[in-house]
Specification:
By secondary structure, this protein is of the alpha+beta class. It has three domains: 2-108, no CATH class; 114-295, no CATH class; 328-466. 56% of the residues lie in helices and 13% in strands. The chain has helices at 2-18, 35-49, 52-58, 63-69, 75-108, 157-160, 167-176, 256-272, 302-351, 356-372, 379-392, 397-408, 411-426, 431-482, and strands at 114-115, 119-121, 130-138, 141-150, 201-205, 226-236, 239-249, 280-282, 286-287, 290-295. The strands form three sheets. A four-stranded antiparallel β-sheet has the order 4-3-10-9. Helix 1 (2-18) packs antiparallel against helix 5 and helix 10 (356-372) crosses helix 11. The radius of gyration is 41 Å and the shape is elongated. The chain starts with a helix and ends with a helix.
């Protein structure tokens, strides 16, 4: 997997190097870090442009939205720049993702517990014991996820004195091992000599005819079971306590696999004897003369992280298109909010004796002056400016208004232009009354829309208000009940 990732990363770097001399549009030259990727993105966009299906899918499908958001600009060029940036950001995400996957993969391989095929490092005395989960092959049998306890180095007597409480409660549960209760012992006991986290030593005494000193059930136990007991002698310096556990044991039959497992466990116990102060825990190479092979299973997460990086790259590639949809929606909302102002100004200027064309030009002149003074860009006035430019360049007034309605796309503006067409074709008779009536209707609709938004905002605030009320009730009621 690492080789594949390195090849992909090398291919990306090669593309960046090959396209280093591509000449970028000034809109894509904002950051020196992004420039190499934008150049590669421009190269990819050029390849896409040569394929009709890809061009339609990735570039031309956004032409209408770009046209609406950038009135008066070259739509083809803006769409090309949009695709260049998408490809550039996608390449950045993919490159960073691959590098992170490689770092995680390389770092992960450095955390192996098993060294030299059979060595586990012991921790220092101030640290706790730990479990090593290994796969072990004993002869022709393989045991997966075998938990090997690596005990820490011995504690000093001063440290041991502080750890006496709590030990006795865990001793019985440890002794049971896989058995459910002392009244039904049907598997080997677990007579631990110590418990993780405690320094106490335990010496066990069993009926040797039934259970050996390691807690293993002997052969020859009657089928109906035998009542016996286990005696635990817990020692720490001069402190000694003896516990007796009455139990009933039943015979156990071993399969070939269980027999191999027992031999491996015995070999481990033997290897651990007399080496508690050693820094290394040397795992046995043989168990009762049978060869033992140790290996550690490692989880490879590189595939997951690689898929995640690819998914992020895909999301980044398509996210700008969703951003275009959001901006078009904001543009339409802005057009609707500005409509009452436009109609009112037209009614005011036309009522003052100005022609529609002069009133239109006066509104755009006021807008340009506001922009020069640091005012906010408004889409409807940008479209009106385009209409003025069309009329000044020789286009007919009626055609210019119709193009304005097509660019706005909203029913309100189509209705406004129909009123303007009526005035141009039939004269000014009744126009002033119609435009004033339209202004009044637009203002009323704007008020209704504002009320609707207020109601929606109130509904959204209902849940937080309920949660706050519950918190206040809890703060008041709980102390009252606590004082009862």
């Amino acid at each position: 997997m690492k080789i594949i990732l390195l090849l992909i990363l090398a291919a990306l770097i090669a593309l960046v190097v090959i396209t280093r001399n591509e000449e970028l549009p000034f809109e894509c030259s904002s950051s020196k870090i992004l420039i190499p990727f934008f150049r590669t993105g421009m190269w990819l966009t050029g390849k896409i442009s040569g394929k009709d299906r890809l061009r339609n899918l990735l570039i031309l499908k956004n032409s209408e939205k770009i046209y609406l958001l950038h009135p008066g600009k070259d739509v083809t060029r803006e769409g090309y720049i949009h695709c260049v940036k998408k490809c550039g950001y996608c390449l950045i995400a993919l490159t960073v993702g691959i590098m992170m996957v490689l770092i995680i993969s390389i770092k992960g391989t450095g955390r192996s517990l098993l060294e030299d095929g059979g060595v586990l490092k012991r921790r220092e005395f101030e640290e706790s014991d730990y479990e090593a989960k290994l796969n072990v092959t004993v002869g022709d049998e393989t045991f997966e996820d075998e938990e090997i306890t690596v005990f820490r180095r011995d504690y000093s007597p001063e440290e041991i004195r502080e750890m006496m409480p709590g030990f006795k409660e865990k001793l019985e549960s440890k002794l049971l091992g896989k058995n459910e209760s002392l009244s039904n012992i049907c598997t080997d006991l677990n007579p631990v000599a110590e418990i993780n986290g405690y320094p106490f030593k335990v010496e066990w005494s069993f009926d040797r005819g039934l259970i050996d000193y390691k807690g293993n059930l002997n052969e020859g136990i009657p089928d109906d079971g035998v009542i016996t007991s286990a005696e635990a002698k817990i020692t720490y310096l001069d402190h000694t306590e003896i516990y007796e556990f009455p139990m009933k044991v039943y015979p156990k039959k071993y399969s070939h696999r269980e027999e191999m497992h027992m031999k491996m466990l015995k070999a481990l116990e033997k290897a651990d004897e007399g080496s508690s102060t050693d820094k290394d825990y040397i795992l046995p190479k043989k168990a009762d003369g049978i060869k033992v092979i140790w290996n550690e299973e490692k989880t490879d997460r590189t595939v997951f992280f690689m898929l995640f990086a690819v998914a992020v790259s895909v999301v980044i590639f398509w996210a700008p298109d969703n951003d275009l949809n959001r901006k078009v929606k904001i543009r339409d909302e802005q057009l609707m909010s500005d409509y009452p102002e436009i109609v009112n100004k037209l009614a005011l200027y036309v009522g003052a004796g100005m022609t529609i064309r002069n009133a239109w030009k006066k509104m755009t002149d006021e807008y340009r002056q506001g922009i020069n003074d640091g005012g906010e860009k408004r889409y409807v006035y940008e479209e009106m400016l385009l209409t003025v430019y069309e009329m000044e360049s020789g286009s007919g007034e009626l055609a210019a208004y119709r193009n304005f309605a097509k660019r706005c796309r909203l029913q309100k503006y189509i209705k406004l232009v129909s009123l303007l067409e009526q005035n141009i074709k039939l004269g000014a008779k009744g126009f002033l009354d119609a435009i004033r009536h339209e202004a009044t209707d637009a203002l009323e609709e704007q008020k209704a829309a504002a009320r609707k938004k207020g109601e929606e905002a109130g509904t959204k605030l209902l849940l937080p208000m309920i949660l706050m009320l519950l918190i206040v009730m809890v703060v008041i009621i709980v102390p009252a009940f606590m004082t009862l």
